[in-house]
Amino acid sequence: MKLASLAVDGVRRSGVVDESERTVMVLPTEIGTVDDIVRGGPEALEAARSTAAAPGESVPLSQVRLEAPLHRFNRDILCTGWNYWDHFEESKGKREGQDPDGRPRHPTFFTKGPDTVIGPADDIAYDPDLSAKWDYEAEIALVIGRDGRSIPEEKAMDHVFGLLVANDVSQRDLQRAHGGQWLKGKSIDAAMPLGPWLTTADEIDDLTGLRVRCEVNGWLLQDASSGQMAFSVPRIIAELSRDMTLRAGDVVLTGTPSGIGNARDPQIFLADGDVVVTRVSGLGELRNTVRRTRLT
Fold it and tell me: Is 96's pLDDT higher than 70?
């Protein structure tokens, strides 16, 4: 099932997307928002599924503007860095003194503020006075659907509600400028598209066969398979949750593949008016325009 968020008469509602028909069925208000369904456990998911299976009125996707599927966050968004070896290798010598000694033996984690999140068609806020190096990063994001601590790899997927598409737009100069910590260069407001809907985990047959792509102004700059991840989704969940409780509603980004602008020669950075399209097979597409916005 593909769960979307949209506003109807000023009220946020959840909907179920039929991608083949390009329609969305708006669910009754008593079903709640997508956030409510994620936190409501199996009963809430089954209620949404049963309602969607009954006859109901659907609206063409072309007639609605989808929001980011999630709006209520328990904490910062949890992120995984350097999780495709080709990306790790392409950036060697370009991290301005922040290169590690050899390949990491464990996933690299950082966080970004939840106010970064925007919808699948919203503008990416861009302020060239804040940063001169706005970079794109296509990623698969997952949403935790069941609380857990020290989750073993073999049970990790039991805790995943679903997956979505993200673009971890980063400011490379800010990322380097604050003591080697990435938080500031990853947490600018209204700069991370997320969506277009939340695909429940049971719809994904093979987590290692998803194609991750990013285009800027029609130019394909990233194109990889999730099978190229250095650390699998179950490994990420197991290591992240070790003595640290993950809770329903937590969002986890799983890393970006090679092709980022900072690692190219010459480098490519986002600018006002650029159209960024982020796609993951089976999960949908984000289409966002970079718009100059005074953030300070």
Answer: no
